[in-house]
Amino acid sequence: MALESEWVEVEGRGTVYSFTVVHRAYTPAYESALPYVVAIVELEEGVRLVTNIVGCKPEQVAIGMRVELSFEDVTPEFTLHKFRPVTL
Question: How many independent structural domains does the chain possess?
Fold first, then answer.
């Protein structure tokens, strides 16, 4: 296991590797977002990361779905990375 890491710029495109649909809010802050998709996205560069899939209904998400990076500004100081289906 390597402990060294570095920042690398990526294209922001990948595929859904795995996912689940959350139907129960574990805190009141998430109630308005239900249901939502938590996914592992594998970037074209090979890195996998945990994220949300947005821009489609949860029942439209599928393993292997092509996705692209989008950002959600939560506050002026805090931005989340999320992914949406690729539109051709």
Answer: 1
* Residue 28, domain extent: 13-85
Query: Does 4 reside within a domain?
Result: no
- 65 falls within a domain: yes
pTM: 0.87
Per-residue model confidence as pLDDT tens digits over 13-41: 999 999 999 999 989 988 999 999 999 99
Return d(Cα 48, Cα 52) in angstroms, integer.
13
- 51 in a structural domain: yes
pLDDT at 88: 62
Long-range contact pairs involving 52-56 (C-beta distance under 8 Å, separation at least 24):
52/80, 52/82, 52/83, 53/16, 53/19, 53/82, 53/83, 53/84, 53/85, 54/82, 54/83, 54/84, 55/84, 55/85, 56/84, 56/85
Residue 24 lies in a domain: yes
